[in-house]
Amino acid sequence: MAESIPAPARAVGYPTPRSTASTPPHHALKSVVDQRLLPHNPADHVAPLKVAHKSMTILNEEQLDAFLTAVKQDAVRKAFFYTELTTSLRLGEICGLM
After folding, report:
1. CA-to-CA distance for 75 and 14, rounded, in angstroms?
2. How far apart are CA 69 and CA 50, in angstroms?
3. Tell me, what DSSP letter sits at residue 32?
4. How many CB atoms are located within 10 Å of the residue 20 CB?
5. Is the pTM of this model over 0.85?
6. Where is region (Disordered) located (predicted)?
7. Separation CA 87–CA 62 (nearest Å)
8. 29-54 per-position pLDDT tens digit
9. Residue 73 has what DSSP assignment?
């Protein structure tokens, strides 16, 4: 039987506007309200940021071949972009491999 891989302890990535409600200032103000030093938490009335979602552009095989041909002169860039285009690694993960 295959061993199961444990799930990460926490999600890794950039904070999203939805996660800003759990930021330290919000928790600090909640603590102040709990101690009855303020009548309400002013951070509760802050609307989350609206983020414009960009659709992903996907290269077809011809475009991928043309791109890799263009970066073929530089071995480091070729390896970087080949890894980026053929894996699901994020930019920060690929830069960590460099």
Report:
1. 30
2. 39
3. H
4. 14
5. no
6. 1-25
7. 18
8. 888 899 999 898 888 887 777 778 88
9. T
